[in-house]
Design goal:
Blueprint (H helix, E strand, L loop, with lengths): L8 H6 L1 H8 L3 E5 L2 E4 H15 L8 H23 L7 H15 L8 H7 L4 H22 L7 H12 L11 H31 L2 E3 L13
Helix pairs in contact: 2-3, 3-4, 4-7, 5-7, 8-9
């Protein structure tokens, strides 16, 4: 991750819609009757910039539309959690992941503290913790729902090894197939998992009642939405 930048007062003045969402909240979309607020969109943008250590000044209109798109996907997956049979993550698991995140963001070599990093993006530790908890639960949901259907056979692993891996490695530094096969298999499973997730979300969107109330922030939706 690159070096993150401060959200300057000048930038905040240039993006009044973000602060408007905080000062005078408004609905920007509905998903099956659930209202998504401008403040939630604001928080999502701040969190994503924080996690990517990305200068907030680099945000584009497409970035903001994509953030709303992700909020819609999050709500669709949140609905699935109520009907799915899987165990929610525990508070201790969330705490452990949050602590790991703190260590990544504020190593001993950095002068800026965790609190200063949060403040520079205008977010709280509770907001980060809530996002971490949601992401862990969604990951667990996706794993429980999709991973059991994925099969990666030995031929697929060997083909990836010969066609994708070996050509990129210099002679003498090529691991044997037996040595690297488990990692290749997991990579192929993760690739298929992402494909199935995209397909599942498209299906959920096609079945949902999604209304974007501000056309300027409309994310791309399937035909018929």
């Amino acid at each position: 991750m690159g070096t993150r930048s401060l959200i300057t007062a000048l930038w905040l003045l240039q993006l009044p819609s973000l602060w408007a969402g905080k000062l005078l909240d408004r609905a920007i979309a509905t998903v099956n009757g659930h209202v998504l607020l401008a403040s939630e969109w604001d928080d999502e943008l701040r969190y994503e910039c924080f996690m990517a250590k990305r200068p907030s000044q680099d945000l584009t209109a497409e970035d903001r539309k994509a953030a709303l798109d992700r909020l819609i996907d999050q709500e669709l997956l949140r609905e699935q959690m109520h009907s799915a049979e899987f165990k929610l993550v525990s508070s201790s698991e969330v705490d452990q992941q949050l602590e790991s995140l703190k260590n990544q963001f504020t190593p001993q070599s950095e002068a800026k503290s965790w609190g200063q990093s949060l403040a520079s993006y205008g977010i709280s530790e509770k907001l980060v913790r809530d996002h971490v908890e949601l992401e862990l639960n969604q990951l667990r949901l996706v794993e429980a729902r999709l991973r059991p259907s994925i099969q990666v056979d030995a031929q697929a692993v060997e083909s990836y090894y010969k066609e994708q891996m070996l050509p990129k490695l210099p002679p003498g530094k090529q691991p044997g197939l037996d040595q690297i096969a488990p990692k290749i298999r997991e990579l192929l499973v993760e690739t298929k998992l992402n494909e199935l997730l995209s397909s599942w979300l498209e299906t959920l969107r096609s079945q949902a009642r999604i209304q974007v109330l501000d056309p300027s922030f409309s994310p791309p939706l399937p035909e018929g939405q």
